[in-house]
């Protein structure tokens, strides 16, 4: 009885907060997950964000390909936005997690974001970069977190950049693995 009461309270909170649904939900996402329809300043900010990530990726190794850095940046940022629409995201991310765990949403946990973004980035068949699956607090029911990590080809996981679309509900967050607040570790490739 007490468990049903807890779930009822969580459901009520979810319904009351559902007005915080992401503005990404127009239901008409083109298959190439093009940039969000944004005019003027918003479009400029979007382009600046892609350029900033491209620059950070290019710095990973002086021999990286700037064209590939741009491809990774565009794909990661645009596809994160697309996934927010696909998941019919409710903000904040932790509330969306509650809805997924309650069965009211199908996808949107951090490992869903990681799986989907990883598949999209793998389609690029990168030559200058390698992809890792990062996990923090592995095995913890409430604290485990997963993200894609990009490193220059031949470089270690710890030298990479975390690409985390879950943290800001589809607005891609990135940071050096060593500088992020999560204690990231590489998940073995055979476990992806």
Structure characterization notes:
The chain has one domain (40-191). It has 5 helices and 5 strands. A hairpin with an 8-residue loop joins strand 2 and strand 3. The protein has helices at residues 2-17, 41-58, 66-86, 93-101, 110-122; strands at 129-136, 145-152, 161-164, 173-176, 185-187. The radius of gyration is 17 Å and the shape is globular. A 5-stranded antiparallel beta sheet has the order 4-3-2-1-5. The longest helix is centred in the middle third of the chain and has 21 residues, at 66-86. The N and C termini lie far apart (38 Å).
Q: Which value, in Å, is the CA radius of gyration?
A: 17 Å
Instruction: Report the portion of residues in β strands.
Output: 5-15%
Please identify the structural class as seen in this structure. Answer: alpha+beta
Percent of residues in helices: 40-55%
Q: How can the largest sheet be summarized?
A: 5 strands, antiparallel
Biggest sheet: strands side by side, in what order? 4-3-2-1-5
Any low-confidence stretches, pLDDT <50, length ≥5? 12-31
Give the termini distance in whole angstroms: 38 Å
Number of domains: 1
Can you count the helices? 5
Overall mean pLDDT score? 84
Helix and strand string, N-terminal first?
HHHHHEEEEE
Number of strands: 5
> How would you describe the shape?
globular
Produce the secondary structure layout.
Elements: H1 2-17, H2 41-58, H3 66-86, H4 93-101, H5 110-122, E1 129-136, E2 145-152, E3 161-164, E4 173-176, E5 185-187
Antiparallel strand pairs: 1-2, 1-5, 2-3, 3-4
Helix pairs in contact: 2-3, 3-5
